[in-house]
Amino acid sequence: MERKIIVVTAAYGHDRIAALGGQQALLPIIASAGADGVEIRRELLNDPQLDALPELAQQIASHGLKACYSAPEPLFTPEGKLNPLIPALLLEAHQLNASWLKLSLGEYRGSQQFAQLQRWLSETNVALVVENDQTTCGKLAPMQRFQAACAALNLPVTLTFDMANWLWVDESPEAAARALAPAVSYIHVKAATPHHYHYRAIALDDAEPRWLALLETLPNDAPRGIEFPLEGRDLVAVTRHYVNLLREK
């Protein structure tokens, strides 16, 4: 079975996306590059675009692409409660015909509210995946606790493994991969380099081979999302280069 490659629209940069007229303008580029799917970012949608998600879904399908949906929201609020926006976000993902909704973890403090989350998930055909973000909530320990609780209680929530975000929270990506790999269903492929006391994402061709060794420790059948910068005059050629690279590696 051929490995699935998804292109995250944010990889093209907010300014480039705005200049092109929105995320829908990227669909022919992504499709022409041979990718299998597109990750639509909620933070790059304005209100009229949010109201037109079914139309965007039709455009995605017409280009032969699968969709996934990313929202800049945590699963748990700063108070440790389930985010009340989750049902609305799941509905938006459904309107987009997305295979899954991606959120960050937030302030996870225990499984007391898993029954409510289970009810919400039972009412939709959209899967939920939780990503390690660049906050302390995305460190390895809380991600492990959450994953273990999901497994123990048979909650159908899996993980998005962002390969570089661990660096932002002073964690070892390799240690995280060893601990979390069995629960990973989606990989954000990203390399980063130190920059002004922090990090910045860089293209794979400009990165040390650490990303490749890390990728080999993660599930081989998990879709791989391109979330590093895609820049250049010919965006189709640049995108195709990395789609082919990640499909082969």
Core attributes:
eight-stranded parallel beta barrel; alpha/beta; 37% helix; two-stranded antiparallel sheet; 249 residues; 24% strand; 11 helices; globular; TIM Barrel
Write the SSE topology.
Blueprint: E1 5-8, H1 14-20, H2 27-32, E2 37-41, H3 47-51, H4 53-62, E3 66-76, H5 86-95, E4 98-106, H6 114-122, E5 127-131, H7 140-152, E6 157-162, H8 165-168, H9 173-180, E7 184-189, E8 191-195, E9 198-202, H10 210-215, E10 224-226, H11 235-248
Parallel strand pairs: 1-2, 1-10, 2-3, 3-4, 4-5, 5-6, 6-7, 7-10
Antiparallel strand pairs: 8-9
Task: Show unreliable segments.
Answer: none
Number of strands: 10
Number of alpha- plus pi-helical segments: 11
Arithmetic mean of pLDDT: 96
CATH fold-level name: TIM Barrel
In the CATH hierarchy, what is the class? Alpha Beta
Could you give a short account of the major beta sheet? 8 strands, parallel, barrel
Task: Find the CATH superfamily.
Answer: Divalent-metal-dependent TIM barrel enzymes
Helix share of residues? 25-40%
Spatial strand order of the main sheet: 1-2-3-4-5-6-7-10
Specify Rg, calculated over alpha carbons: 17 Å
The backbone outline, from C-alpha atoms, is: globular
Order of helices and strands: EHHEHHEHEHEHEHHEEEHEH
Give an overview of the whole structure.
The protein is of the alpha/beta class and about 250 residues long. The protein has a single domain (about 5-195, about 200-249), classed as Divalent-metal-dependent TIM barrel enzymes (TIM Barrel), CATH 3.20.20.150. Helix content is about 35%, strand content about 25%. The strands form two sheets. It has an eight-stranded parallel β-barrel with strand order 1-2-3-4-5-6-7-10, surrounded by four helices. The protein starts with a strand and ends with a helix. The model has no long low-confidence stretch (mean pLDDT about 95).
